[in-house]
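To whoever picks this up:

The nightly regression suite flagged Alpha-amylase as changed. Nothing in the input moved, so I suspect the structure step. Input below, exactly as stored in the fixture:
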Amino acid sequence: MDETTHIPHPAWSYPAVIYELNVRQLTPEGTFAAAEKHLPRLRELGIDAVWLMPIHPIGETNRKGTLGSYYAVRDYCGVNPEFGTMADFDRFVSTAHGLGLKVLLDWVANHTARDARWVTERPADWYERDAAGEPVVPNGWDDTAKLNYANRAVWQGQIDAMRFWLAEHGVDGFRCDMAMLVPTAFWQEAAAQLREVKHNLFMLAEAEQADLFDRAFDACYAWEFHHIVNDIAQGRRRVWDLRNYLYADRDRYPRSAMRLMFTSNHDENSWNGSEFRRLGDAAGIMAALTFVLPQSMPLVYTGQEFGYDHSFAFFDRDPMVDPRPGRFTELYRLLCLLKHRNRALQAGERGGSFVEIENNAKDCLMTFVREVEGNRVLCVMNLSPYAIHADFNTGVYQGEYADALTGNRIVVPYRVEQDMAPWSYRILIRE
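Regenerated output under the current build:
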């Protein structure tokens, strides 16, 4: 892709760690006010931006479960009374900004609830219609109605609603649900108009199409990476599949592209189980991997910072029960610190080069260096359930380093030979 089409990312986003906040399940109360009390600890953990799952009123028609799907939006300019009032939301945003946190809203542009305000308040051609004149049900989601993007009035209606949250309520950007289901040209137009309101707008696409980086999005999902990681942990694929993906990915996207990498999110957690169910003993190393790979913008989902092993109900109240800081709390704190302190690990075009070091166990072991302007991060990762004897030459990368997770100083020799336990890893820093 022509790099000249890239719009510079907000400065805060290059070293950023994103937290996906499920308001319904984070606290027993399930409200903005209760969630607001967690913002200081998220900032202390090292989170830079909080992405809120959709906060809008939810449709009643064909409602799922007792409370419905976040993604069946009834009113783009309202807040779900389940969570509180608009004033409660504004206080949440104000508190977040006071702590230095950015706030991103989940935006559902492809469809609305079947009883959304737009169904009756806008012309019929704002929706795709079936032979009976009813709004089309997209992808089998029978609580939703498909918007008609052949109608440019729909484009402007969406943009005006997004502008409302930027201009009137101070949000910093959007995570855009199923972004590939609406035209890329719409996102380009939306980004252009919205950046006139907020020049440092941040846009994240739940999609992987490379053309989304053409004047539209700052970051997109790394779904393929996520599935490969799950498969490696479950023994269905090996490290060479991850390696092949990384090199192919480098050719598919502009260097400025940011990729959201994760071991869990609301979809994976609710429908496929927690990261511990999917990754087992590999949960720790795979979390670390999302912080050190090229272009990566890491995501932490609600409960992961506690090591909370639970698959949340999607359509009903199912709040965390007595979550306590644990091993994963400290792991994420150290990984966030690693990301913030090392320019080599920044996302987008500011990040460091990615150079692999040849080793004796390439089906299990990844040994690589990220480096830029004198900042170097050396990673040795046994991405397998096997104990292995690692053997590799560091060459020009030998020397003194600090261990990112222990703080210990170590000297890395020209030739490294060491036994590595299953799913073990070291991340070493040299400045």
